[in-house]
Amino acid sequence: MSEALQKASLSSVTLAPAALSEITSILSKHAVKRVFLVVDPVASAASGADTVLADALNHCEVTPFSKFQLNPKLEDVQRGIALFRDNDPEMVIALGGGTAIDLAKMIGTLAVQSNDARAIVLGHNQIQCDGPPLVAVPTTAGTGSEATHFAVVYVDGDKYSLADPTLLPDYALVDPLLTHSLPARITAATGLDAFCQAIESLWAVGATEESCEYATQAALLSIGHLVSSVQNPTPESRMAMCQASHLAGKAIDISKTTASHALSYPLTSLHGLPHGIAVALTLAPMLGFNSEVTAPDCVDPRGVDYVRRRISTIVDLLGATDVPSACKKIRSILSDTGCPASLVEAGITHPSQWEQIIRGVNAERMSNNPRRTTSDSLLRLLSESNDDQ
Ligand SMILES: [Zn+2]
Q1: pLDDT tens digit string along 1-13?
Q2: DSSP for 149-172?
Q3: Which residues surround ligand 1, an ion (CB under 5 A)?
Q4: Domains and CATH numbers, the chain
Q5: What is this structure's pTM?
Q6: End-to-end CA distance of the chain
Q7: What pLDDT, in 10s, does the model give residues 97-130?
Q8: Distance 216 CA to ligand 1 centre (A)
Q9: Ligand 1 center to residue 100 CA distance, Å?
Q10: How many Å lie between the centroid of ligand 1 and the Cα of residue 147?
């Protein structure tokens, strides 16, 4: 982690309208001739980034990589690595949502390793050197992937998180203008991811004073602006959500995520729910669960009182006076952004579905939750979240 932080302090972040135009000076600073461009073509055209990029990359040899599915798959990474090696680029640019940025992180770094990408993702081998400079340009305000040193990848349907200091982008150009054309459903799903990452980071076992500062700001910004950015977007609400997303990314880069993210991966792979919605569906039930932490089931070494103080902070940030009203506030944010507010509303009502979700839980993320969970407690939590309308 100290290495990651060291590199984090060296990476350059521009968060402002028209930040994308900085790409020209970055290219000339590194005297780049060959660029590997991981791009979501729909996002690139809709956001208006394509014209800025076409101008900036006019004098470069560009290898575009754009045929990939939502949520990175190992096969996509491997195809990207083969294309990268054929073209020997000097810089990688990622433009799109979390998938494009995560793919670019993995392709740029894994392509220059002597060990096989699959073996590295599965944890059999280590990353040994850094790839070429990576410029991350998010077109959604959600994952904060431009601020983290990890990347999600699915191998044979199972989710893995590759973590290494070399995966942190060297440049992050966070340009709110690129989010202005986002449809409401994408603004909602991605904004919910930022909101949940901020809340989970606040109660995470891995949280530090620094991560809590980022997460507090991200939570306040998303609680204040997420609903309006969906219902009635303005340049101010778009800017606020870009800040929330980036700050939540910085927060989880230190603290990592917890139980709602652990439960979200099977919700996405089994039920096709967009990532942010899959996470948000269990955020209120997890707030209720974590608020009842006791000494025997407290995972955080700082103890029960510390965890309870963190829960009170979250209740305050949500503008609530107690845990039930804070849970209600979370559900109203989901409803007001046009998303299902419970598993029932998402059509996941059967005990066999809950059991399947629990079997697919990500153990590493779950172990970062402040209160210990068991299959039984999770089953109770998922079934009670159905009664608690
Ligand atoms: Zn997330």
Answers
A1: 344 444 444 579 9
A2: SEEEEEETTEEEEEE-GGGS-SEE
A3: 193
A4: 3-179 (3.40.50.1970), 184-387 (1.20.1090.10)
A5: 0.94
A6: 41
A7: 999 999 999 999 999 999 999 999 999 999 999 9
A8: 16
A9: 14
A10: 12
